[in-house]
């Protein structure tokens, strides 16, 4: 019987210690409301006490986790930023003109095309060659061009 009160006391001490540690943790939070589609910049963030989202998913713990990302849902001031509410910025937009690049060893061919899909860096998108009308797939590169591969 004496072991049970000791276990309860130890559990209570651990719970208090972990809640105190949680209060000390800080995470980036919006300075003002950030709406879907807006890019998150340093001037739009403040450091606030860690406040897990109501659904319990993972949150951004450092500004580097969110800077340059795009909000996919409304982010509220004073609340931690859920990782699932972020996406990389789209460098290629459907309908926009893109530079298509084909590289095969020393051979490099560039052409203009129209994106048929939105895309982020590293994503495969479909692009229509403006001159030939042929639709090809390629990987979005960091400069917004699409690198197509040989077929």
Report on the architecture of this protein:
The protein has about 150 residues and is an alpha+beta fold. The protein folds into two domains: about 60 residues, Type Iii Antifreeze Protein Isoform Hplc 12, CATH 3.90.1210; about 50 residues, SH3 type barrels (Roll). The protein is about 15% helix and about 30% strand. It has one helix and nine strands, in the order H-E-E-E-E-E-E-E-E-E. The strands form three sheets. It has a five-stranded mixed β-barrel. Strands 1-2 form a two-stranded antiparallel ribbon. A hairpin with a 5-residue loop joins strand 8 and strand 9. The radius of gyration is 24 Å and the shape is elongated. The protein starts with a helix and ends with a strand.
Task: Please trace the helix and strand order, writing H or E for each element.
Answer: HEEEEEEEEE
Task: Describe the global form.
Answer: elongated
Uncertain stretches: 1-17
The percent range for strand residues is 25-35%
* Overall strand count: 9
CATH topology of the largest domain: Type Iii Antifreeze Protein Isoform Hplc 12
Helix proportion: 10-25%
Keywords:
151 residues, alpha+beta, SH3 type barrels, 5-stranded mixed barrel, two-stranded antiparallel sheet, 9 strands
What is the compact description of this entry?
With 151 residues, this protein is α+β, with helices and mostly antiparallel strands. 15% of the residues lie in helices and 30% in strands. It is elongated.
